[in-house]
Amino acid sequence: MEYLDFELPIKELEEQLEKCQVIGQESDVDVTTTCKQITKKLLETKKDIYKNLTAWQRVQLSRHPSRPYTLDHVNAICGDTFLELHGDRSFKDDKAMIGGLGKIGGQSFMIVGQQKGYNTKTRQYRNFGMANPEGYRKALRLMKMAEKFNIPVLTLIDTPGAYPGLEAEERGQGEAIARNIFEMVRLKVPVITVIVGEGASGGALGIGVGDRVYMLENTWYSVISPESCSSILWKSWEYKERAADALKLTSADMKKQKLVDDIIPEPLGGAHYDRETTFKTVEEYILKGLAELKLLSTEELIAQRMEKYCKMGEFKE
User: Fold this and answer.
1) Concatenated DSSP letters for 135-181?
2) What gap in Å lies between CA 84 and CA 75, rounded to an integer?
3) Measuring CA to CA, which residue among 73, 61, 12 is closest to residue 273?
4) What letter does residue 250 receive in the DSSP assignment?
5) Which residues contact 208 (CB under 8 A, 6 or more apart)?
6) Nearest of 193, 158, 180, 198 to residue 71 by alpha carbon
7) Are 116 and 128 in contact (CB under 8 A)?
8) At what angle do helices 55-62 and 240-247 cross, to 10 degrees?
9) Pick from 100, 98, 86, 168: which is nearest to 126 by CA?
10) In degrees, to the nearest 5, what angle opens at C-alpha 117 toward C-alphas 113 and 122?
11) Which of 68, 153, 180, 309 has the smallest C-beta neighbourhood within 10 Å, fewest atoms?
């Protein structure tokens, strides 16, 4: 297990508990009481730390290297029913954007999402979860296919942003994202979106227009990352914690602003501490959202989706 800087007190207690258990196993000394005391203190410390996380600490948790990525969720929830589909039928297949058909609770879904890598080699292969225009065009192709066959769409967001390279701009990055937003608003099938990690900028919004938008508890969703915001406003990354607070990017902030529909709770310590529970909870929210959307006619579905997004950004002087 890798520990973040604010998790070091937890690391110390877990190491103490492990040593205590080893002493009990290798000698005749009764360490039961001591182990119980350490376990109790460990639980209290975890609750105290994770109950009072700052916005920047939640950003750190969303990037934890052990955190489950999009394909982890897909493989756990869909099992062997997931069939990946490739290519945008124009340029090439974007490995940062995955998509395909899979069954959740017996219901077929067209699943689209950004995928990050697990090590240096796979991170380069997946372009760090930053999709090119062909990735967004692949996503749109699959969503239009889902519309044709009346299959609900599930999008899983985990990206530091769309790829900002020159070649991406040359192939129409902005147009591809704008086209996706335009078309997703008008899709005739239910669209459920779950933010499972980072949700940064238009790169996230390019597959994020949903009838139901859910955020895992320790994720973030914003127009810009805290580091980039800090570098623009203060010409330095040193103010990223301050930027994270100002951006109001946590799940609680987004729910308060009515920009997402609900928050999916995570196990104590984050999704990586208990992956199975996380996958099960995500599945429950997806099926609950679909059950609500199935009650609507196509006309009602599109009208409610348009109304939902038209309301965003309203404010009073």
Assistant:
1) HHHHHHHHHHHHHHTT--EEEEEEES-S---HHHHHTTHHHHHHHHH
2) 11
3) 61
4) B
5) 155, 157, 193, 195, 199
6) 158
7) yes
8) 100
9) 98
10) 125
11) 309
Tokens coding 281: 């909870």
Between helices 55-62 and 226-234, what is the axis angle to 10°? 130
Of 160, 117, 157, 162, give the one whose Cα is nearest residue 136.
Answer: 162
Q: Residue with structure tokens 């020159």?
A: 166
pTM over 0.85, yes/no: yes
Q: How far apart, in whole angstroms, are the C-alpha atoms of residue 214 and residue 85?
A: 24
- How many CB atoms are located within 10 Å of the residue 222 CB? 23
Q: Tokens at residue 194, please?
A: 């779950």
The tokens describing 186, both together, are: 């008008």
Per residue in 198-249, pLDDT (tens digit) is 999 899 999 999 999 999 999 999 999 999 999 999 999 999 999 999 999 9
- What count of residues does the chain have? 317
User: Does residue 159 contact residue 204 with C-beta atoms inside 8 Å?
Assistant: yes
CA dist list (Å): 144 to 59, 133, 191, 286, 290 = 33, 17, 12, 20, 18
